[in-house]
Amino acid sequence: MSPTIVGGAMLITIGAGLLIAAWWGRGAGLVAAGTFVALLVGTGLMLGGVPSNVGSSEWVPSSVAEASRHFDAGLGDGRLDLSELELEPGSTTTFTASVKAGELVVIVPPTARVEVRASSKVGDITLDQSVQSGVDVRVREVLPPEVRPEGEPATIVLDLRSGLGDIEVRRAA
Q: Does the keyword Transmembrane apply (predicted)?
């Protein structure tokens, strides 16, 4: 059962208790409890649910086969390092990553063409040196390779999401 549903059920119970307590004038404690639960439920809804991961996460995929995995930092910081990934010339690989609250950093190889599709409910999105901030920030941008590879450059497609926090995409040094 979803924590949001449990929180909603708790709010209904507290509300019913407040209605009954209103007849006897003893509902002050329930007001505090109701306010606390309402704030928790509201925060959970704003972030898209209660995060299952808490803390720092670092992912370094060793093969393109790991691209099908969703990289979710939850509540905290996530770092997706694609700098050592072996990409076939001309290939396209899609990675999906998200953070509910915190920071998500993606490091891409200098020889890859990178298509970024990123959104943040509240926070910054930084692509190389370009920063966009605010509420409901959405970015769709293509970053050309910094270093010309031999043959056709590989393409990395990044689908990135943030609830309350920042997203950064930068090239490996």
A: yes
169 vs 35, 52, 80, 128, CA distance in Å? 38, 24, 10, 6
The pair of structure tokens assigned to 142 is 């293509």
Give 117-126 pLDDT, tens digit per residue.
999 999 999 9
Q: What are the structure tokens assigned to 146, written together? A: 């910094």
Sequence-ordered list of residues with C-beta below 8 angstroms from that of 156, at least 6 positions apart, any chain: 82, 87, 92, 93, 94, 95, 108, 109, 112, 113, 114, 115
**11 pLDDT more than 80:** no
- Structure tokens given for 54: 């808490």
Q: Which residue has the tokens 């086969």?
A: 65
The model's pTM: 0.72
